[in-house]
Amino acid sequence: xxxxxxxxxxxxxxxxxxxxxxxxxxxxxxxxxxxxxxxxxxxxxxxxxxxxxxxxxxxxxxxxxxxxxxxxxxxxxxxxxxxxxxxxxxxxxxxxxxxxxxxxxxxxxxxxxxxxxxxxxxxxxxxxxxxxxxxxxxxxxxxxxxxxxxxxxxxxxxxxxxxxxxxxxxxxxxxxxxxxxxxxxxxxxxxxxxxxxxxxxxxxxxxxxxxxxxxxxxxxxxxxxxxxxxxxxxxxxxxxxxxxxxxxxxxx
Amino acid sequence: xxxxxxxxxxxxxxxxxxxxxxxxxxxxxxxxxxxxxxxxxxxxxxxxxxxxxxxxxxxxxxxxxxxxxxxxxxxxxxxxxxxxxxxxxxxxxxxxxxxxxxxxxxxxxxxxxxxxxxxxxxxxxxxxxxxxxxxxxxxxxxxxxxxxxxxxxxxxxxxxxxxxxxxxxxxxxxxxxxxxxxxxxxxxxxxxxxxxxxxxxxxxxxxxxxxxxxxxxxxxxxxxxxxxxxxxxxxxxxxxxxxxxxxxxxxxxxxxxxxxxxxxxxxxxxxxxxxxxxxxxxxxxxxxxxxxxxxxxxxxxxxxxxxxxxxxxxxxxxxxxxxxxxxxxxxxxxxxxxxxxxxxxxxxxxxxxxxxxxxxxxxxxxxxxxxxxxxx
Lengths: 252, 376
Hints:
The complex is a heterodimer.
Chain A: E1 2-13, E2 16-22, E3 25-27, E4 31-35, H1 42-49, E5 57-62, E6 65-66, H2 71-77, E7 78-81, H3 93-103, H4 108-122, H5 137-149, E8 155-159, H6 167-182, E9 186-191, H7 194-198, E10 202-207, E11 210-215, H8 217-224, H9 229-248
Parallel strand pairs in A: 4-9, 4-10, 7-8, 8-9
Antiparallel strand pairs in A: 1-2, 1-3, 1-5, 5-6, 10-11
Helix pairs in contact in A: 3-5, 4-5, 8-9
Chain B: H1 3-19, H2 21-41, E1 49-55, H3 60-71, E2 75-80, H4 84-92, E3 98-102, H5 106-112, E4 119-122, H6 127-153, H7 178-209, H8 211-216, H9 222-250, H10 260-285, H11 288-305, H12 318-324, H13 328-342, H14 346-370
Parallel strand pairs in B: 1-2, 1-3
Antiparallel strand pairs in B: 3-4
Helix pairs in contact in B: 1-9, 2-7, 2-9, 7-9, 7-10, 7-11, 7-13, 9-10, 9-14, 10-11, 10-13, 10-14, 13-14
C-alpha cells in the first residue's frame, strides 16, 4: 500500500524554485531518507507533505489524503517534527507531552500507558519534571519525537531530527524509530548524516529542489561503484554540477 | 470546537504567562503605574496659581483687596516687587502666572466712587489654565465688589448690586475635581492598552520561537487556538479591572455610583474586543516587535486622544469626530463614566453596549478568519 505519493509537486518562492516537480511514492511501513545539501528543498518538501505549506503546482497524497484539500483531516494521521525545536521551553517535559496528547485528543484511558511507554523508550522518564529548555540537545529531540508519536500517527515526518545530536542519543533515537517501523508507521526522515541514510530502506537525493536519485542505498552505491553512500552522492552531485555549470556561466 | 483542546491551549498559555516574569510585570504593574502616573500628574484642576504683586498704593484698602486673593485657595502669592522688570522676569521664568499691579491712587479712586483700576498681567501661553485663572480673578473681584457695596450703602439705599443671583448646582462632580473625571476614563485606557499589548505578543511569539510550526501541523482548529489564547488574558484583564476599581476607590476616592455588576459585565464585553484585537494584530504581523508597536499605536493613542478621555469629542473638527466613531473606547468611556459618575443603568447605555458587542464580534470573526495554519 502506498503511504506517500507526490506527482510533480512544486513550490516556488518568488523566482526561486524550492521543490521542482517532485514525484515519489513511499510505501506503508517504509523508512525513506531525504538527503541533500543545505537549501536543497528538504524542509519545503516536509512542509508541503504535512499540509502546512501549499504547493505552487503538482499534487500530493499522504495516507490517502490530499495535502491541500484534506489538509485538516490529514493532520490526525501524521506526526511532524520541525527542523527547529518546536516545543515549549518554558513547559516541563510532561507538560509538553500532555499538551500534545490533549491537542491530538488521545483518550484519557490510553494516555498513561502511552506516555509511560514513550518516556521509557526515550529515557526521558527521570527528566519528566524538567523544563524542556533545560534539556540537552539529544533529550530535546527525543522529547520532540515523543510529542510527535503521542497519538500513534500513521506517517511520521522528521526534519533533520538528529542534527547536532551526540552519537549515543542518535543511536537511542534510531532505536525508537525501529520500534515504530514494527508498528507499520511510515517514516520520512531528512538527514545530513549519510550513515543514517544507510539505515533507510530507500533514499531520495535532492539538490536544488530536484530529485536526482531515488533507490535503496545499496543500488545507489552499486550504480556509482562507490564504497559508501557519501562517495556516491558526491559523485552524483558533481556530475550534475558539470552539466549545469557551463549553462550558469552564460551571461544573463 | 473541541473543549479539551481549548482547555489545553489555555492552560499552556497560562503556565507560560506565570513563568515569564516580563509578561507578569507588564500585566500587573502597568495598570498601577498608569493609574498613579495619570491620576496624579494629569490633574486638570487649576489651584495655587502663582502670583506676584506690585502694590504701588500701599494703603490699608489695597492690603484688604490683596488679602482676598491671599485667602483664596486658587492663588498663591509668591512675592511682592516694585518694578515692572521684576514682574516680567517672574512671568518670563514661569515662576508666576499672574502679576497684579495696583496703581498709586487705588484707594483714592475707590473712596471717590469711581472705578478703581487694578491691572492683571496673565501668562496666556497655556490658554486653558489662563482662562480658568482669569475666571478666578473675576470671581474674587466680584466678591470684593459685593462686599464693598454692602458696606458702603448699608441701610442707606436699596440698590441691588447683583440684579440676577447666579446659583449654580453642578451635578455628578460638585467640586469640579478633575480626578473624578480622569480616573474612570483612565480605567478605559488601561484595559484597552494592556489587553491589546499583552495579546499582541502571543501568536507572534509562537511563530518566532518555532512552536507554531509544530502546532499548525496538528488537528488544532483556528477557533480553538484563538479562544484558548484568549481565556488566560481575559482573566488577567478582569484582574486588572478589579485592581483599577479598588485603586480608584481607595487611592483616588472615586467610588462607583451605579451598578458594579453592570460595570463588570460591560467591561467584559469591551475586554473581549480589545483582547481579540491584540490577537488579530499578532496573527497578522507574526512578529513580536512589529505587533507590540502596532498594538500601542492602534490602542493607546486613539484611546487617549480620540475617545473623549481628555478632550471632548464635540469640540473636534467634523472629520476627526467621524474617526472617533471607529474608536471602541469612545463608547466604553461613555459607559464607564455613566456608571461611575452618574450611576446610570443599561437603559441609557444599551447603544454603546451594542457597539462594543459589534466590535468584539468583528474582532473574533477576523482573528479566526485570519489565522492560517500555513507557514507561508
